[in-house]
């Protein structure tokens, strides 16, 4: 039929996204990945690494390719999945200032337990939205999956940020892991090209 495209099933295997993926990252790219987890923007990463913004973008593109991440939010999720994001601070509370502080303070000084009651503040539709954001879906893609307008997605994201004190989409990925909302089967998915996701489990 005219205008139709054939989408091939992803060829990558489940075990291709795990701790072994980190071996592909050079020391310079690991430092850039750490800065990304600290929620630094491109210019901040460039200044810290003494690189140009162009070079930082090139490194981030390579990191995303190596970890098969759709975007920067999905990359944060990937770094958690590989164990790069310091699993020793799992179950700690995440908020606007906490994510930065947890990387700047010794782990033994951080004893703010995660409050599971925060999850109870969320409606089912908000939990679904957090999971979709963590998987790297755009507002437009989320709107199509939820059968709502894109403006409604933006409103829902704003409500979630206000409820949980999350600064941006990166924090959604962190919150999903810290709260236990996100799981391997949910995170390791790829679009089948037919409006569905293909679950991948270890």
Notes on the protein architecture:
This protein is mostly helical and 202 residues long. It has a domain at 70-199: Arc Repressor Mutant, subunit A, CATH 1.10.10.10. The protein has helices at residues 27-37, 42-49, 53-67, 72-81, 98-104, 124-134, 139-146, 150-164, 169-178, 184-187, and strands at residues 189-191, 197-199. The protein is elongated and about 40 Å long. The model is unreliable at 1-17, 87-114 and 183-202 (pLDDT under 50).
Give the overall silhouette: elongated
Number of strands: 2
Distance between the termini: 37 Å
CATH class placement of one domain: Mainly Alpha
Strand content: under 5%
Largest sheet, in brief, is: 2 strands, antiparallel
Number of helices: 10
Question: How large, in whole angstroms, is the Cα Rg?
Answer: 17 Å
User: How much helix, percentage-wise, in residues?
Assistant: 40-55%
Primary descriptors:
single chain, 202 residues, mainly alpha, Arc Repressor Mutant, subunit A, two-stranded antiparallel ribbon, disordered N terminus, disordered C terminus
């Amino acid at each position: 039929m005219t205008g139709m495209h054939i989408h091939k099933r992803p060829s990558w295997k489940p075990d291709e996204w795990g701790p072994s993926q980190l071996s592909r990252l050079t020391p310079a790219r690991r430092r850039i990945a750490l800065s990304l987890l600290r929620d630094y923007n491109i210019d901040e990463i460039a200044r810290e690494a003494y690189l140009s913004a162009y070079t930082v973008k090139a490194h981030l593109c390579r990191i995303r390719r190596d970890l098969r991440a759709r975007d920067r939010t999905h990359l944060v999720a990937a770094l958690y999945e590989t164990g790069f994001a310091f699993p020793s601070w799992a179950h700690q509370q995440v908020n606007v200032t906490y994510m930065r502080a947890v990387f700047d303070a010794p782990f033994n000084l951080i004893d703010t337990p995660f409050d599971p009651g925060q999850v109870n503040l969320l409606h089912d539709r908000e939990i679904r939205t957090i999971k979709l954001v963590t998987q790297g879906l755009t507002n437009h893609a989320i709107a199509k999956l939820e059968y709502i307008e894109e403006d409604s997605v933006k409103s829902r994201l704003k409500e979630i940020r206000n409820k949980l004190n999350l600064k941006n989409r990166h924090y959604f990925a962190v919150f999903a892991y810290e709260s236990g909302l996100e799981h391997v089967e949910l995170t390791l998915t790829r679009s089948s090209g037919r409006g569905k996701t293909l679950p991948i489990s270890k």
